[in-house]
């Protein structure tokens, strides 16, 4: 993809993943502006809908979307849209996917089984994607080739390790996606 230095390019990127994987935190660590967050407290109304077993300390959840912006260069700005993680909001995912160039799919290696419906949605929307394996201190450090195999990814799907709380590693995962997108565009 040739980027004319005299023309600014705004690119819509989705940050997706299952419930409680760290999408809001990732956008917060990356955004150069105060991120827009549509989080609400988890209430008794979510009982029977949201599985909190993997995130027992989670107190809020995204109910519409998160939004942030990251300028990569004078000619390339990424608009980051985070999707809600619950199945009941998948119509929102469809709306948010319109006009998106690609998606960074965040996965928790301790809950990979929750990533399959997310990958199905991303693929059904025809989005190019990369995987960001959210890993942080105190969790098992699975080899990326084992994560790739467990998720049944094609060999050309990029997989990067990140800690969504850390700007540097989150940015590297996002750059991995952008490089993959640029290679797809020729």
UniProtKB/TrEMBL annotation:
InterPro entries named in the record: Gliding_Motility_GTPase (IPR052705), Gpn (IPR004130), P-loop_NTPase (IPR027417)
Q: Which UniProt keywords apply?
A: GTP-binding, Hydrolase, Nucleotide-binding
Gene3D superfamilies from the UniProt entry: P-loop containing nucleotide triphosphate hydrolases
Q: Which family does it belong to?
A: Belongs to the GPN-loop GTPase family.
Stored PANTHER family: ATP/GTP-BINDING PROTEIN-RELATED (PTHR42708), GLIDING MOTILITY PROTEIN MGLA (PTHR42708:SF1)
Under which name does UniProt file this protein? Answer: ATP/GTP-binding protein
């Amino acid at each position: 993809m040739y980027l004319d230095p005299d023309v600014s390019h705004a690119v819509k990127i989705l940050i997706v993943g299952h419930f409680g994987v760290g999408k809001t935190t990732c956008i917060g660590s990356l955004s150069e502006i105060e991120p827009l967050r549509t989080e609400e407290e988890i209430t008794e109304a979510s009982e029977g809908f949201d599985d909190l077993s993997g995130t027992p300390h989670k107190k809020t959840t995204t109910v519409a979307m998160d939004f942030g912006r990251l300028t990569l260069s004078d000619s390339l700005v990424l608009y980051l849209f985070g999707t809600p993680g619950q199945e009941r909001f998948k119509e929102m995912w469809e709306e948010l996917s319109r006009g998106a160039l690609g998606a960074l799919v965040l996965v928790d290696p301790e809950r990979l089984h929750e990533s399959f419906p997310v990958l199905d949605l991303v693929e059904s929307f025809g989005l190019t994607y990369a995987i960001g394996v959210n890993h942080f201190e105190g969790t098992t450090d699975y080899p990326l080739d084992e994560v790739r195999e467990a998720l049944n990814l094609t060999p050309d799907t990029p997989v990067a390790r990140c800690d969504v709380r850390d700007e540097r590693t989150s940015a590297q995962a996002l750059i991995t996606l952008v490089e993959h997108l640029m290679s797809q565009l020729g």
